[in-house]
Write a structure and sequence with these properties.
Chain lengths: ~80, ~220
């Protein structure tokens, strides 16, 4: 697999769209390309941020944060 | 925005609703008030088990993460439950976060998406959500992103900028990416769902993702 092909596969990988047979081939190439491959995969995760940031923020229930913080403080106190 | 909304929610901070100072900017975070801790600093606080750090991170990103979860499961109550689980996971797993491997927001989005897709499958709501998604798509073609004007683009707002990049893709590529990212479908599932040859789905995903990736790089260079 060329590095350009690996880049295409990486973008599919980070969104979980590789098929099992492609994943095996991808993991082999990932090992072969080493650090360069890891750096590129890290960059591809920016796609996750981009998709999330493309959405209009939604409102959560007012009680949710209070409930969350109570759980956190309770857990911390244990 | 409806006047029936809680005034505190309207104010934006606790609801994660955008305000001028709490608006996603294009560096993959939100514009911060002077002196406010960065996301990385908040993650360090959470790693040190400081609830206040989680509280601030929640205020900053709950709106974005809720929108993402909602996009996957299409149910407001379930989305709130999952959002709570995501922030508990952020608290519990913060020690596993490494700034070397990316930004806090990317990590949080990955956690939220995984939880949402797991939740969708566990509750076997897949078919119901799919039907809702189809209805929404029919009612609002291209509802994933909105049309943006040049003025809005110049404002640097991340949502609008991303909207422009995504909107520039052919609809078939947008659909393939939507189904893969927000519905967690494999290429084969997308092919079956859209009556499209597998090879075509793969090409659509590859081309669409490359265009978004390249667009992101250009925008980052610009801002």
């Amino acid at each position: 697999m060329s590095f350009e092909e690996f880049q295409n596969q990486s973008r599919l990988y980070v969104i979980g769209a590789l098929e099992p047979d492609e994943l095996t081939e991808f993991e082999a190439a990932r090992k072969e390309f080493g650090t360069k491959a890891e750096d590129f995969i890290t960059e591809c995760y920016a796609l996750h941020e981009a998709f999330a940031l493309s959405l209009r923020p939604a409102k959560s229930s007012a009680a949710l944060k209070d409930r969350l913080m109570s759980m956190v403080r309770e857990k911390r106190a244990k | 925005m409806s006047s029936a909304v809680d005034p505190k929610l309207e104010a934006g901070a606790s609801a994660g609703v955008e305000t001028e100072r709490n608006r996603p900017s294009f560096n993959g975070t939100v514009e911060l008030e002077p002196g406010a801790p960065s996301d990385a600093e908040l993650m360090l606080g959470i790693q040190a088990e400081e609830p206040e750090a989680l509280s601030q991170l929640y205020d900053r990103y709950n709106g974005i993460l809720k929108a993402l979860i909602l996009r996957v499961i299409h149910n407001d109550t379930e989305a709130d439950d999952l959002l709570q689980e995501v922030f508990m996971e952020i608290w519990n797993q913060a020690k596993n976060f490494s700034a070397k491997k990316g930004k806090p927001l990317g990590w949080m989005v990955t956690l939220a998406r995984r939880r949402a897709i797991d939740g969708l499958r566990k509750k076997q709501a897949y078919l119901r959500a799919e039907a809702r998604l189809q209805t929404e798509t029919e009612q609002q073609p291209g509802a994933w992103v909105e049309n943006v004007t040049e003025k809005e683009i110049r404002s640097g707002d991340a949502r609008l900028l991303m909207g422009k990049v995504i909107k520039s893709l052919p609809e078939a590529q947008q659909e393939a990416i939507e189904l893969a990212f927000f519905q967690g479908m494999s290429q084969r599932e997308i092919a079956a769902n859209t009556n499209t040859p597998l090879g075509t789905v793969k090409t659509r995903l590859e081309l669409g993702l490359k265009k978004i990736y390249d667009g992101l790089k250009e925008l980052r260079d610009e801002f």
